[in-house]
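Minutes, structural biology subgroup

Action item carried over from last meeting: produce the structure token record for Aminotransferase class I and II (Kribbella albertanoniae). EB confirmed the sequence was re-checked against the source entry. Recorded below for completeness.
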Amino acid sequence: MSLPIVTATRYVLPLREGGSLPGVVEGNDLGTYVIKFHGAGQGPKALVAEVVVGELFRRLGLRVPELKLIQLDPAIGKSEPDFEIQELLIRSAGLNLAVDLLPGSFGYDGSAGNPGDEAMARILWLDAFVANVDRSWRNTNLLVWHKNLWLIDHGAALYFHHSWMSAEKFATLAYDADDHVFSIAAPGVPAVADELAAAITPELLTEVIGLVPDEWLGEGDRERYLGHLLARLEHRSAWQPGGAS
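Output recorded by EB:
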């Protein structure tokens, strides 16, 4: 199994959000996507986290915009008048990440798209599992589209891979649930934790890690991601919001 691959046909505009400078592009399948660049400051590891976390969450029943791989021809960048963007497009020639654009969506602020107590607890537990530090009220990384909640932007998760923190350290690394947009759901986490933990099997993790292109990984990285995540799952009592189940 692999992610679909499309080719970028036109760069539309930059989003200028965060340090990675994602943009909107059109693909040869007539789709419109948010493109995230392997040549951005965060590098391909942010894209690895996007794929592993996004596809894991999707398989566990959460709404995540469809992810695809997208080929970028450097010629597209040569016609871009903004030098910073032109440089990024040329530097990111090759395979990048495309996230399906949700037209008309808007950022979650609590006034619409409330997922309910159980879903909030599930999202909180899963963010704690993957050490996603980027889901606060300052930046929820949640969109409301057709009255449903969608989860986006998981590049800040799995931050152990930036220095390859040991699996033993990551396994028990505390999670600051107080800063999470759904911190109010912490008391309900133990009620959903056993089900979620049981669903995250070695086979499932191997599947989602297997969706990452080889060129974004170093030698042995797939095994390291699997080992770190399995170790964290095994020691969930150390980081689980709301206390042990």
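Discussion: The first strand starts at residue 5 and ends at 14.
Next step: EB to file the record with the rest of the batch.
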